[in-house]
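Components:
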Amino acid sequence: MAGRYDLVVLNARLAGSGAPTDIGIRDGAIAGKGKLAAAGAAETFDAKGLLLLPPFVEPHVHLDTALTAGDPAWNESGTLAEGIAIWTARKARLTREDVIARAERTIRIYLGYGVLHMRAMVDIGDPKLTALQAVLELRERYRERIDLQVTAFPQDGIVSCPDNEARMEEALRMGADGVSAVPHLEATREEGVLSLRKAFGLAERKGAYVHVFCDETDDAASRFLEVCASLAIATGLSSRVGAAHANAAAYYNEPYFQKLLGLVKQSGLSIVACPLINSVMQGRYDAYPKGRGLTRIKEFKRAGINVALAHDDIRTPFYPLGTGNPLDAAHMAAHLAHMCGRAELAELIGMITEGGAAAMNLGTAYGCRSGDFPEGAPASFLLFDAEDAADLIRKRPSPRYVFRRGRLVAETAPAATSLRDDESFLRV
Ligand SMILES: [Zn+2]
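Structure:
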């Protein structure tokens, strides 16, 4: 007799509930939970009480710039301007092989950290769209292991660099999923608004999403989030709109910010905060006291707006650090957003899981909803050697095991440190 399940994962501990539970999987989907008879399974996997989490989501990463830090030069000032200058020199000699090698390694690093859904930014400033072609190729190659959304990103602007409008359209034709804009880097407020109109118009016509680099500056006068919200409403793109960074919001006056919260809530767009890079890029030109380099995560979240956290750059001309572990972003946010309460730490885990899934508009392609894994959902999950959300953010371990649609796709052996005590080494 064929078993009821292809696989039963025994003794997994769901976050928030103490008792271990079993997960039955059939055809890559959740087919049962609770105390399941292992006899009805073709295969079993004993989780031995490990903490079970939904997959991590990375809603904003640059696969084309990843792993280029120091080539051709190090960004010694640490500024955005120097980063852009170095990247401009580097991108002049991009080849397919170069992008494939770095982007593939980056995807594999993310997989090890339990990221199964990723939204990639790819600069389309190169007329040959070499990087875009390479990342689209990887999207197909890794389709069975990771959901990759590819964003045509006009780093040099749309109005400032008019060729980018046609290139974004070409990128969509080639298979990109979404478009972007960088309104605060356009020459004037009006041109910034125009760049957003062009990006939203294109997305609306082509059925793409919009993922805006929005107000990534400490300039309190940079108010493009309101334009994104207004256009999200006018076009009906709603939850298909993401506003990344939104740093200027930290400097808005309170009456204006309160009005903005209502508009953003109504629009259905997601805020994608990038705590790692923004902690070093922002606050840079402030006199003391200095800003903390992060958008108002807590306030957006409390207002009922979806907030996701992104890890963003990994060893780029803009940020020389970065591991690819989403828990690093949560750790930085816990500090900069003053979110170290136990419930708040759990909320931060929500922002690298379900919050990210909502920002990527994944719908039922993401298995977990409101902390639960309904039957029929994809059997994709992570197993961690950690007590709870606070412990995860404190230790930032790799998942011991990463399951994707019922299949083990990555595992990490635990690190073990021993100290010499008297006659023998003892584990710390
Ligand atoms: Zn970025």
